[in-house]
Write a structure and sequence with these properties.
Blueprint (H helix, E strand, L loop, with lengths): L12 E6 L5 E6 L3 E8 L4 E8 H10 L1 H11 L4
Antiparallel strand pairs: 1-2, 3-4
Helix pairs in contact: 1-2
């Protein structure tokens, strides 16, 4: 599976390595992803998600249920 956040849809970006002599070569900036387990009390089950660290901060702030609801509205989670 590709390195894509399952809640926010963040994925790798493309850019350049730039040397001191200003030579440019292509490179990728990968998303900062972690694999994390969450308990959902409404459904009484555990789920494992591959999420970005910024999505984890959002979950800590608004809760897993609200974050999943928002991701479903955006079409990232089924």
């Amino acid at each position: 599976m590709s390195r894509v956040c399952e809640l926010t849809g963040k994925k790798a970006m493309v850019g350049n390595n730039v040397s001191h002599a200003m030579n440019k070569t292509k490179r990728t900036f990968d998303a900062n992803l972690i694999k994390k387990r969450f308990y959902i009390p409404e459904e009484d089950k555990w789920i494992t998600l591959k999420i970005s660290t910024s999505a984890l901060k959002t979950i800590n702030k608004i809760g897993i249920s609200a974050a999943l609801k928002k991701a479903r509205a955006n079409g990232f989670v089924k």
